[in-house]
Amino acid sequence: MSILETINQPADLRDHSVAELQQLAEEIRHVLLTKVSTTGGHVGPNLGSVELTIAWHRVFNSPHDKIVFDVSHQSYTHKILTGRKQAWLDPDHYHDVSGFTEPRESEHDFFTIGHTSTSVGLASGLALARDDQNTHDHITAVIGDGSMSGGLAYEALDNAAVLNRQLLIVVNDNQWSIAENHGGIYQNLAELRKTNGEASNNLFKALGLDYRYVADGNDIQSLIDAFEAVKDIDHPLVLHINTQKGRGFKPALENEEAWHWHVPFNLPDGSPKHVSTGENYWDLILADLDEHVQHGVPIYAMNAAVPGGFHLKDWAAKYPKRYIDVGIAEQESITLAAGMAKGGLRPVVFHSATFLQRAYDQLSHDLGINSLPVVMLINGGRISGGDPTHQGDLDQAELANIPNLTYLAPTTKEDLIAQLDWALAQTDGPVAIRVPSNGVHSDPLAPDFAPTKMHILHHGTQIALMGLGSMRPLAETVLGKLSAQGIDATLIDPRSTNTLDPEALDQLRGFHKLVVTMEEGTLDGGFGQKIAAYYGPTDVNVLTLGAQRRFNHNETRDALLKEFNLTPDTATQAILNALKEI
Amino acid sequence: MSILETINQPADLRDHSVAELQQLAEEIRHVLLTKVSTTGGHVGPNLGSVELTIAWHRVFNSPHDKIVFDVSHQSYTHKILTGRKQAWLDPDHYHDVSGFTEPRESEHDFFTIGHTSTSVGLASGLALARDDQNTHDHITAVIGDGSMSGGLAYEALDNAAVLNRQLLIVVNDNQWSIAENHGGIYQNLAELRKTNGEASNNLFKALGLDYRYVADGNDIQSLIDAFEAVKDIDHPLVLHINTQKGRGFKPALENEEAWHWHVPFNLPDGSPKHVSTGENYWDLILADLDEHVQHGVPIYAMNAAVPGGFHLKDWAAKYPKRYIDVGIAEQESITLAAGMAKGGLRPVVFHSATFLQRAYDQLSHDLGINSLPVVMLINGGRISGGDPTHQGDLDQAELANIPNLTYLAPTTKEDLIAQLDWALAQTDGPVAIRVPSNGVHSDPLAPDFAPTKMHILHHGTQIALMGLGSMRPLAETVLGKLSAQGIDATLIDPRSTNTLDPEALDQLRGFHKLVVTMEEGTLDGGFGQKIAAYYGPTDVNVLTLGAQRRFNHNETRDALLKEFNLTPDTATQAILNALKEI
Question: Which residues form the Transketolase-like pyrimidine-binding domain (chains A, B) (predicted)?
């Protein structure tokens, strides 16, 4: 009988010796690897924090005592120990739990969290509530894995010192962020590791926090001893724990970055189960940028700790001086780019839609007000399904309403490159480009790009269909379905989420009684509402198809598209229904 | 002849001895005080940094060498020395220059900046550009006055160490933020001051930065020596300068916080020229919160370094344990509140519209996804005129499109308190309240508040006027003007910027051919566009009146209201024009 079979709740850990718990750690590593090799998931961060999580649950009493995982992608072991192990043991239940902490799943989880640097602030709030209620539970934040470079972590550490409550801050130092750890602070962590916690300048002590160091963060006895020793300290304390990311899986140890998150793979060599081949937009973008560099354009590719998703590794190797990864520090990625653009460089910043919202003030205040020509390439702006923490349909409401910022939505590779070239040629202000997420499409006949010119693909009457970005193929399909009903609709590629084309819009009047907008984003704050307001005082009716303003939890993308009338059948039906009403 | 009369550009400083420059500092203090006593402005920060600015311009060669002021509200001396002194010497020119650095004014300014913690990132960008172009100019960032608590400053310091370029980072340590300096870092600065820069834990060194200390930051010789010594160092260096906020003006020295920014006042005693009296919304809000505390509701009032604007001083004195000022750390203010709400407390966060955008990710990811019942009271959400860095009309596009977040817009004191009470009674999710900026209005007949119920103030036909928040009085006036034209319009107080009332909206159909929305916010992403989309597929026309999506530079509020058709005459005319078209 395995040890894991005996563990159904954290209290069960107390029935075992430390040696057995060390064995449990290996069993958990095995089930972690077995599942993620099938489903994909965060590999390295979870392999490194198995012992830490076991020891915490052995010493503390969850959920009375509370643990808050930063980012929470390293909470797999926590889930296994708190009644959710079936999701790792039984393939039929592999999708029962999310990849992040989730209060809907368990009383041992307190926040749905998937963005970094949040744990210390959230845990500080729980500590304040505890002291208000005199419940004396112990609060722990677990931060690490690159989260320390985010400004929110600093703001929270700074305030934790002032609030001065019992708060255990575990710095899980696995020596890596998602990509290499960037920034001066990682040098300080390295010095602290080298000196067994005794380095002369200590960031945490400088912030007014108490501090202790654990040299072997994968040794359960050391961890139990450390937790026992600090458990009842009445003030905030940083417990700096040196762990090994990817521990127990050779490929993950050899390439920590590639194994931060991984697609399904073969055990034991780690080769991917499916290899994606063929054209993709990121390689096309980088080839275009390369050409601009060859022509003397001072392009710098920039990124915040996730180069892999944008294929930036080759760029970084070819142009080490033209590549900047600021670490998990989205605010700095934009403010630094603002300064670079002011100095005459052409920074091109690669961001995921969900993370760029962390730089909202910088986009508006630093870039927008100063009209600085930073180019941004946005990944994942789509109706995504899956975890709400990484929901992709909120980017238009975020970016498209910032003054001076142009947010473009290309539909094909020709369009994408034309827009990128235009964005690099102009110096009037920031331009973001929503890179389509629906595979590479081509339209060699696309006209040159001009920022406020829609592309009219087909001239019809009665109905005009506007398929924004990745919704162009849907609009094309709906065009065919309407044609089968005897309606010869107009088809338009708007090309921009937020700069309208008054001339084209005015020309549609008279020949069209209904304009239909289709967008992969929330309707509130989006493209369709801008069109609806434009036609508000006219005789043109507008039907806006897009996502509802809400966080989705377990829905699939397909179910969402259907619900939002963004499939060929549902969209066509919605249009025909609207036509009947007007 | 005064020294100041001889200074028309920075190079003129070189014609003077250090003793004369010290005299110049006193002359500049005099003109600073004379102007701000008439116009209002940032008093303390500018009085403290006079010598620092003189010494920098004496040693460096602006604009070839570049200085970037954080927040830039301490740039008055810089402006006086760089050709703009008339704006302090001649009352007719008092309004010629803005209160912040402004590239439109001078080649010595590089960014329009009014939010904190931006300088190091921006200056790092300039340094990268310099090195790309091999121009060898010296780049300096001046940070301090509370800006060090913002996470962006940390992200930028962290990256500056890694980028490792010539970059002088002046930490202007005047021992104060806007309010008292909060957070562990200020303890470290105090230790560094106490030990003449030799404290055993040094935050800047821990971040991997070189460091030097200047004990008397108001002594020009010391400052010149320090700048000369570090000028050509080829890596990033923090020059920690101990200055005296409010120096040279007794009232400002005695109450540094009150004199950070001040309304017009009488010299020399500092008494205000105009005393505002009478009812105001902030006192009403705090009285209501006080009552809730008396009834056992665990309310915590929270703030990010600007308690004065919300009248929070009395609250803090009465309830020190129920008051939290996180310092200039807007992200932490929301994440901490999220944790507190999860723990069962009822945090009420007071924010200015322009600064809350710094916590966009926290509003969406921490509060929204987790549906945590944090209440936020928003100041300054209005068409503001003046500096674009503090523009007030962007808050709806920011807040109202975040899922799960309700953004209310009361119109009267009864409405405001009813909405606040409702927000505190519910636990479904975050609620922000846009506190009206148009003086205290009263309507004792306002019905109880329910979140998706509009308040129909007058039932008419043909046209329905929706006056959102502070636009209700305008809508009432327009109602009268339309009545004089024989049109009996319907008058509606929508009460919420982002939760529609489908029942009421559907009832308007049939009896109304035009719905007019009036809002003090940008149209893009705002209330009117939501209404326009709602009625898009119907026979109801919609006219949206509000602000254009753009940053305004020198326009007055009155001019903007007129341009945006938000005055009684312009609104009425726009409505009558629209009516003719449909």
Answer: 279-442
Q: Do B388 and A394 touch (CB under 8 A)?
A: no
Where in the sequence of chain A do the CATH 3.40.50.970 domains occur?
Answer: 4-253, 281-434
Domain over A4-253 is classified CATH 3.40.50.970: yes
At the fourth CATH level, which superfamily is domain B4-262?
Thiamin diphosphate (ThDP)-binding fold, Pyr/PP domains (3.40.50.970)
The arithmetic mean of pLDDT across residues B128-150, rounded, is 95
Phi and psi at residue A34, in whole multiples of 5°?
-60, -45
Q: Give the closest residue to B384 by CA, choosing from B117, B574, B564, B572.
A: B564
Cβ-nearest to B536 among A124, A209, A542: A542
Three-state SS for B99?
A: coil
pLDDT tens digits along B83-105 = 999 999 999 999 999 999 999 99
Of A122, A157, A532, nearest to B335 by CB-CB distance is: A122
Q: Are B453 and B469 in contact (CB under 8 A)?
A: no
pLDDT digit string (tens) for B327-356?
999 999 999 999 999 999 999 999 999 999
**A331 contacts on B by Cβ (under 8 Å):** 121, 151-152, 155
Q: B79 CB contacts (<8 Å, ≥6 apart)? A: B85, B87, B88, B97, B105, B106
Give the residue range(s) of CATH 3.40.50.970 domains in chain B: 4-262, 281-434
> Residue A506 forms beta bridges with which residues?
none
Do A345 and B128 make contact, defined as CB atoms within 8 angstroms? yes
User: What does the block give as tokens for A161?
Assistant: 């010192």
Q: What is the third-level CATH fold of B281-434?
A: Rossmann fold (3.40.50)
- Give pLDDT, residue A82: 98
In the structure encoding, which two tokens stand for residue B130, read together?
Answer: 């310099």
Q: List chain A residues with CB under 8 Å of B123.
A: 339
pTM (2 decimals)? Answer: 0.97
Domain with CATH 3.40.50.920 in chain B: 455-581
As for the ipTM of the complex, it is 0.97
| B553 → chain A, closest CA residue | A369
Confidence tier at B539 by pLDDT (50, 70, 90): very high
Residues of chain A short of pLDDT 70, as ranges, are 177-183
Residue B462: CB partners within 8 Å, gap ≥ 6? Answer: B487, B488, B489, B511, B512, B513, B514
Residues A354 and A392: beta-carbon distance below 8 Å? yes
Q: Which residue of B has its CA nearest to A327?
A: B159
Peptide bond into B63 cis (omega under 30): yes
Task: Please provide the CATH number assigned to the domain covering B455-581.
Answer: 3.40.50.920
For residues B479 and B428, the answer to whether their CB atoms sit within 8 Å is no
